[in-house]
Amino acid sequence: MAADLGELLVPYMPTIRVPRTGDRVFKSECAFSFDSPESEGGLYVCMNTFLGFGREHVERHYRKTGQSVYMHLKRHVKEKATGAAGGAIPRRRNGKVFLDLELNRDFNGEDYEYEDEAKLVIFPDHFEIPLPNIEELPALVTIACDAVLNAPSAYKKQEPESWEEEIQVSRHARSLRQLDNGVRIPPSGWKCQKCELRENLWLNLTDGAVLCGKWFFDGSGGNGHALEHYRETNHPLAVKLDTITPDGADVYSFEEEEAVLDPHISEHLSHFGIDMLQMQKRTENGHHTDNNSRPRVSEWEVIQESGMKLKAVFGSGYTGIKNLGNSCYLGTVLQVLFIFYINYFCINFHSDKGVSPRMLKSLVSRGHPEFSSNRQQDAHEFLLHIINLVERNSAGSENPSDVFRFLVEERVQCCQTRRVRYTQRVDCCIQLPAPIEAATNREELLAYEAKRKEAEENMRAPPEPVRARIPFTACLQAFTEPENVPDFWSSALQAKSAGVKTSRFTSFPEYLIVQVKKFTFGVDWVPKKLDLAIDVPDFLDLNRLRATGLQAGEEELPDLMPPIVLPEDTRAPEIDETAVMQLAEMGFPLEACRKAVYYTGNMGPEMAFNWIIAHMEEPDFAEPLLLPSMMDPGPSTSDSPLGTAPLGSSPPEESIAILTSMGFPRNHSIQALKATNNNLERALDWIFTHPEEEESDAVSDMADTEPNDNAFSNANSHSDSTLSPDRDTTGPRVKDGPGRYELFAFISHMGASTMSGHYVCHIKKEGRWVIYNDHKVCLSERPPKDLGYIYFYHRLSSS
């Protein structure tokens, strides 16, 4: 038999590889679906590429690549047999589990056991060889199979063992001297004694001083007063106040410069009147909450419909998405978008246990610094990311994102001359402001604020929070009001002037996305959520917000660009000669090096080197550096009737040079600058969201310099383009229709910030609301429409 197996595998030996260091073995999820070893058909791992495939996709991979040998992995989950007394019969649980996979959280109790099965499968005849089969298989195949079985999952977090340092007991813990100064710490209302910060507070265990910690790169933390106090007093140990629980607390030793253990922490805290048994750690889903705010128990209960007997549902369209750890933002957005992208992603799955989105997350977040991390993210930002990603990858085919796109008309008026300019752009989401001043319970909010300040001053527990109730009509009113345009340049006056801007719908999308601006930035620049409820309607009529275009009697602003202001100092610019010489030593012409350093803004030899590589083929590469102040004056801008450059003029060469030095084509860079009014930062964003092969020729030449920070979404990929369904065939196709809508889904957020908390979504299917809470899917009894963050409407027919 051994000889037979050896001879059978000989033709396939060149295609069987042993995983090397750095190879990732995808043995937990299919590359094209949500199939896993726990699925009915198991998972097939290619023995050459180590990619995993479900039963429906492995045949396609075989036909396309010719790879014939796969390892079939199957995990069986079953209930343990019960004994005579009704209890589970004890078994060696790990005896039949050899796959390095995460255990399913739904079957992780004592009543279930796992059994793993592995075998080699040879296509196309599906010849199966059970594993392990060491004696009968060739040595190379045995080594390869053993390596695949023992390889960690490609998604399993790998951390160097050297980083897993055990926290040691502080040498100051046993002999810590505590001052008998009568200090008593209240159970809440803490603030730094020097700067009155109310977060990241540390209690010095010697004298009871409450001071703030160090400042962190993300804007959180404090002003470092706890460390300053140690330097002044040499009191070594401090405990973080909001980490004290009956199980312990976070203790830091300033003298040892590391986190430490304090076996006597209970005694040390009781010296200042703190009873550890009465303390509870203030966290939400493992994230910090401010020590002066109460847990949002009511919000969490209402949104998740806790306390209600919800009926679980499953099947096609009712399958949950497992939380990978801070990935609920992804799961809720995908649940809604699957309605539109089901054919795009080739999605067809149903499971009562939920599916893991690891492979999908890896695909859609590739190259993104935030979405590829394991940190919590803003669901709205991820939604726009997915819409743009699908659009960029739909070139030459039907784009599912077209159903969200609509045209926005922006009307800018010069307040002094009353002349106007109308422009259009494409967007996919409207952002509604939430005017707190319009709250129907304004008096109640003012009373709460007064009580809160009084509690802070007297170091008492804060009062019960009051949620602002804002009418949806007030949000729409704030959305339609004119807004001031900062640094507005009037082409009629040829000078800066006051300007106002209003936005209206030129077209209405098939599906309307509405985001409520619930988040703001605190004094520490950390995003914080406004606690408010909005009576969002089931039916919405926006026809009165349709754009009207240029009206009779209105006079347009001239199509002129702001003049290029040259510095008064006409001396030669300063150039980093050190960087020039470093480049010249590489053998490049001296004048070319000077131009490279100048056009990259003295940003260093590396950037200048990139500029040189990008411009080496140009005929004037080694010509002397010529600047506007060093050239012949030529025709003055004052010769023009209005003294300004026409719209068709080329962007500044310096800006073009900076973009080309980064590796972008010159034509693409010029088009990006023209589309963004020569704004470098916006031009970079334009380039990344407008791949060269998908560029649109219909780019608006904006004469008036107003930022795109209105109530529509700014994160879309065509926010600077003037597109219309009739003129542009390469950009998104805009479908117009009546502005009457019905609510069919909404995403809700629980927690104090986008950096923490939890997301769930409600979707109306078959006339009933369904709640999707990670892998759990149930019929909703009381959908909390007033607490949503992102709302989805579909257009009603004109009949």
Automatic annotation (TrEMBL):
Sequence ranges of Basic and acidic residues compositional bias: 725-736
Lineage top rank: taxon: Eukaryota
Enzyme Commission no: 3.4.19.12
Keyword Repeat: yes
Domain UBA: 574-615, 650-690
TM segment ranges: none
Domain USP: 319-796
Keyword Zinc-finger belongs to the record: yes
Reaction(s) this enzyme catalyzes, per UniProt: Thiol-dependent hydrolysis of ester, thioester, amide, peptide and isopeptide bonds formed by the C-terminal Gly of ubiquitin (a 76-residue protein attached to proteins as an intracellular targeting signal)
GO BP annotations listed: autophagy; protein deubiquitination; proteolysis
PROSITE patterns (alphabetical): UBA, USP_2, USP_3, ZF_UBP
Segments forming domain UBP-type: 168-276
Keywords from the UniProt entry: Autophagy, Hydrolase, Metal-binding, Protease, Repeat, Thiol protease, Ubl conjugation pathway, Zinc, Zinc-finger
SUPFAM superfamilies associated with the record: Cysteine proteinases, RING/U-box, UBA-like
Similarity field: Belongs to the peptidase C19 family.
Name this protein carries in UniProt: Ubiquitin carboxyl-terminal hydrolase
Species assigned in the record: Acanthochromis polyacanthus (spiny chromis)
